[in-house]
Amino acid sequence: MDPPEHDIMDRPPRNPRRGMLTRGTTLVLVIQAFFMAATTFAVFIVAVLTPFGLIVLPGYDSRAPDPYVPSIFRQGNPETNANDNKSPHIAGARSVAFGVLTVLQLNQAFLSRSLDASVFTTGLRANKWMVWCVLLSFVLYVIGTYVPGLNSWLELRPLSWPAWLVILGAVLLQYVFSELTKLALRTIARRRRQRASCQQH
Description:
Helices cover 63% and strands 0% of the residues. The chain is mostly helical. Helix 1 runs antiparallel to helix 4 (88-111), helix 1 runs antiparallel to helix 8 (161-200) and helix 4 (88-111) runs antiparallel to helix 6.
C-alpha cells in the first residue's frame, strides 16, 4: 500500500540475515516513544499543578474562585483519594493528556513511513489507506471525548479550545523533533558513505 521510496535502488543490498529491527531502528523507536511519553507527562503535570487543568474544560470562568486543589500531590495526604481524582481539575488534566498522547500516536504513523527521509519528502497523502485509518481513529477519539455517557465511561471530559491549542503545539513540536532526528541520521549515513568511499580509493 505504501509507495516505494525514491532512492530505494541507490541503496546497497540489504543483508538477508539482518532482522527488521536493527540497533539503529530500535534506537529511533525508543527515542520517539520517549518523546511522546515525556510530552504527555509534561502536559499532565502542568495541568495538575496549575489551573490549566480547569482551563482545558469548556465553561471555565476565569473570574470565578479557583477551586484547584492539587490533592494527589498535597503533602501529608497518605493515600490517593478516588473522589479527589475525579474532581474537575484532575479530570481536565487526564483528558488533555490523553488527547495529546492519542494525537501524537496517530501523527507518528506519518512520521514513521521512513527512518531517515523527511516527512515533507515522503508526503502525507501517499498512502490513502493509512490516511483514512488515521482519520477514522481521530473521529473515534473525538466521539469518545464529546459524546455524553461514552466519555463518562472512559473517564474523559470534553476539551475547550485552549486544550486543542496545546495538542496542536505538541504535534508541531513532534514534527520538529522528528525532522531533527532524521537530519542527524542522514548526516551520519552520509559520513559513513564518505568514509567507505575513501577507504575504497
